[in-house]
Give the backbone structure.
Amino acid sequence: MGIGSGLARAFYRLFILHALETGSQRPAAILGALHASDGVLPLESGAFTKAVSQLIDAGLVVLAELGALELTPMGRRERDAQRVVWQRLISIVNRLLDGDVPQPEPPGDGGTSLPLVTDRTAEAHRERVVIAEIRDIARRARDGGPRFAIVLADIAIAHPRPAVGTAMLQRSLRETIGRGRSTFPAGVSAHRYGDRGVCLIVPGDEHGGTAELLRARLLESLGAMHATVKDFRGARYAVRIGAARWTPAAATSGAVLRLAEAALSAESTTRAA
């Protein structure tokens, strides 16, 4: 089984940027040199040529005479920046291969104690979008369709400059909801929930795994921004999750949503204690 295309392209981009340090070279010569020294790597076919195209599109390399590639000043800066990232990743991989596997901690909120804040926007959004879908899926469930659950997430961010915290929040929400179809199981629908929350409507009886996947996705997004965007490095952040399962005993479509909100508030209270 070959390495995934994303990792393969990232490796080839790094290799090409380093290979061009001594001067312009044709793509086939770069690939041939790699094969001659290390053999053909078990990477997805097409990854090398896609990496070349990405470097050209980004302005990191340019085409020179006879189809050769030439490193640009921006490409040199990118190579140096990527070198730092790869050194850290390789250090982690080496520890994993040596059997030094970090033990997962219990799911948490990012190690930050921040208050749960309600907002007036949530009420309008709930009525306009979320309740409408819950009402529809609850009607199908009462008619013998699959049951469902509601998973809510709340993000709290503290930063000395409030506008920066807001920018970090908005980017994380856009990423999480925009990539919902590729992140969560089939059939899950993702919505914005108020100013700083996410609502998942999860079909079926099992929602615990999806809830923790949502928590991990948000923490991943916030952590990546905190590590890679200079302005975000002073931020503290927390992610809370609340969930509830629909049952035929639910009096109204909004009852399960209120149960999920109560679970969200309960988690916030527990973590603040």
